[in-house]
Amino acid sequence: GNIPDGGAGDNHVHVGTTATIMFKTVGDYYIDVKANSGTSSAATRTLTCRYVRRNIRRLFPEDRNAFFNTFKTMLANSTDDGVARYGTNYKSIDYFVEVHLNKAATRRADHMHDGMGFLTQHVALSNAFEVAMQAVSPQLALPYWDVTEDEVLARTTYGGDPRGLWKTELWTDDWFGNATGSPAHIVERGRFAYQAVANGVEG
Question: What would the 3-class secondary structure string for 58-116 be?
Fold first, then answer.
């Protein structure tokens, strides 16, 4: 069975042959297990809880919503306001848009995507984004999008037509939304409807 909350000094009693504890903060936990099924037995272990980046399609709904809500917070708060509220690791979405534009918007010098830039600078940007996100919601790890799944879906489900991918869960109102029905290519429904995006330096 599941025991949803695990923390330092917590005691849990569970009846059955298995028990699962979900730790909500990273760190090392000293576990002392005592079982009694006619004869008593005990075991002690140190367990380590670490951040794990997961496929966004495989997140539990509550974790996915926490990620999207944190993303919305980073959209709504400038870096200065966020630092005052969440600490010095906070950066706004506008900050990351600016960095990405500065490094990738020049066609003749795309430092983010050409050559080794993708393996170094884009990873560094993702790492910085995760740190900023954790300033708001320390329990989160930045999920990844496995685009190879979309390639398989396009081939096997939509007859090789990538436009069919707009029907997948990623682009529904509860996820990222999509702009396929908008002449202006604007997301018009869902959590990101009419979201403004910076096109220059953050003010």
Answer: HCCHHHHHHHHHHHHHHHHCCHHHHHHHHCCCCCCHHHHHHHHHHHHCCCCCCCCCCCC
Nearest to 163 by CA among 150, 176, 174: 150
Instruction: Output the pLDDT for position 38.
Output: 62
Neighbours of 68 (CB within 10 A): 17
The conformation of residue 147, written as its DSSP 8-state character, comes to: H
Which amino acid, residue 79? Answer: T
Per the DSSP assignment, residues forming a β-bridge with 50 are: none
Confidence of residue 3 (pLDDT cuts 50, 70, 90): very low
Which pTM does this prediction carry? Answer: 0.78
CA atoms of 161 and 144, how far apart (whole Å):
23
